[in-house]
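sry for the spam today, last one i promise. struct tokens for design, 483 residues
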């Protein structure tokens, strides 16, 4: 099998060898095992289902959380010459969806969101098709998003029970023991094989900097990006602040755009493509941005707040330095940020009054959309309550949602403690996910001692080396094509 895998790897992807963990994951899939694979960002998770797709007889279903992620994966496969790939999503017109459903079995790689997967026509079609592999990409979203604003993640098990079940691969860069259990349960995995690589990225260097007031944060961010170049991502908590930062920095001559869920889908896709194509150097975003953005040379990830969880923080800073070059994750915070993060994280979570209002309305036969139009409930409230009240009694639902809300608060406390105590940031993040840090790089973090000037100098040299390697690879592939 090993020789065959290396042959497919070279013929389809142009690589001579696997990255750490990839071959073992692929072998488990081909042995028809359910697999939970945890690989750090930039370590080639996509190849773990793309390569088996060329060996397995039928299609691969990829459950993906974001339109941007789907589109990026589709484009990557098309660049490799694969034509049998499609994203079945809301970008398609009703007529396009109908046409695609009629010929879905022609495709090898089919990308869908959990919500699209739950649509009746799609479920019926997939039940009639042979499927060789099901992939949950960014599988931590099952646990992170499923319990509240995207409950269709928790319905995946119901769908899986109605199909001829192939092996399942769950892919993510970060997962605690609890999240792994959530993934296994909701994907109805059968004694899954775990493949876990260290999530530590030695080339990412951490800094946590306390600021005396909210008003001074922008000035510190401005100084940061004036002193040390991008490309980079600035993460903030509000859509308004993302727009304000982007406008102020644009006025000062930086090539930057904002990105958040309040923007039209097309506009968001446009900003992402500008960033990937080096037409802009910076994106100022809420946490809506970043997943699936395969940009290798992100040099800085800047936060102006306490993230909502250690897992979210690890995902966001992990987008830096995919090329292996030194990169900086710097976070500016004030003592007031804890309360602000708790408010923002829990503000759209239904409380007991929302739950009782929704329950009474349903019993009266009212459409929940009326409550949204009247401003009494949000769309998120309705999604959450539709899921839970269909499965639990009202008092059980109240208790469950109160517990989930408290968990969100505790996750912010965990993140705050990592920033505020005197212990190594890197070590705390690694240990949070149940792993052990074997060694620390030079300039590890602001708690251990950090010389940012040294990082920038070494980064420039490493980038020059990578560009040379890139040209060598291109020449090699060119001669391969001639042969």
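last one done:
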């Amino acid at each position: 099998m090993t020789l065959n895998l290396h042959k497919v790897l070279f013929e389809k992807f142009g690589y001579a060898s696997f990255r750490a963990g990839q071959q073992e994951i692929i072998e488990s899939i081909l042995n028809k095992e359910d697999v939970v694979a945890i690989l750090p960002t930039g370590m080639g998770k996509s190849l773990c289902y793309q390569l088996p797709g060329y060996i397995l007889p039928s299609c691969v279903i990829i459950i993906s959380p974001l339109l941007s992620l789907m589109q990026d994966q589709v484009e990557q496969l098309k660049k490799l010459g694969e034509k049998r790939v499609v994203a079945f999503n809301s970008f398609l017109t009703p007529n396009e969806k109908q046409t695609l459903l009629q010929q879905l079995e022609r495709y090898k790689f089919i990308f869908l969101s959990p919500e699209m997967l739950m649509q009746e026509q799609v479920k019926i079609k997939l039940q009639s098709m042979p499927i060789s592999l099901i992939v949950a990409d960014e599988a931590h979203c099952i646990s992170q998003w499923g319990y509240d604003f995207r409950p269709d993640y928790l319905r995946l098990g119901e769908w899986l029970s109605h199909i001829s079940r192939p092996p399942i691969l769950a892919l993510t860069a970060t997962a605690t023991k609890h999240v792994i259990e959530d993934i296994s349960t909701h994907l109805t995995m059968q004694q899954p094989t775990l493949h876990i690589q260290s999530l530590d990225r030695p080339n990412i260097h951490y800094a946590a900097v306390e600021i005396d007031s909210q008003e001074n944060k922008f000035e510190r961010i401005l100084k940061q990006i004036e002193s040390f170049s991008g490309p980079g991502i600035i993460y903030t908590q509000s859509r308004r602040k993302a727009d304000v930062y982007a406008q102020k920095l644009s006025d000062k001559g930086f090539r930057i755009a904002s990105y958040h869920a309040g923007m039209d889908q097309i506009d968001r896709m446009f900003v992402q493509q500008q960033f990937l194509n080096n037409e802009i150097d910076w994106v100022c975003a809420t946490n809506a941005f970043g997943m699936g953005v395969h940009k290798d040379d992100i040099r800085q990830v800047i936060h102006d707040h306490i993230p909502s969880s250690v897992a979210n923080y690890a995902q966001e800073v992990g987008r830096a330095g995919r090329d292996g070059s030194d990169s900086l994750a710097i976070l500016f915070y004030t003592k007031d940020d804890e309360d602000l993060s708790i408010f923002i994280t829990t503000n759209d979570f239904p409380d007991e009054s929302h739950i009782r209002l929704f329950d009474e309305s349903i019993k009266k036969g009212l459409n929940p959309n009326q409550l949204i139009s009247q401003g009494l409930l949000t769309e998120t409230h309705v999604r959450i309550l539709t899921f839970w009240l269909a499965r639990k009694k009202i008092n059980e639902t109240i208790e469950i949602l109160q517990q989930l809300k408290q968990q969100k608060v505790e996750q912010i406390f965990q993140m705050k403690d990592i920033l505020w105590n005197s212990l190594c940031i890197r070590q705390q993040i690694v240990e949070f996910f149940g792993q052990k840090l074997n060694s620390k790089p030079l300039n590890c973090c602001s708690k251990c001692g950090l010389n940012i000037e040294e990082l920038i100098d070494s980064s420039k040299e490493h980038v020059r080396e990578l560009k040379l390697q890139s040209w060598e690879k291109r020449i090699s592939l060119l001669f391969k094509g001639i042969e």
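The chain has a mean pLDDT of 89. ok im logging off now
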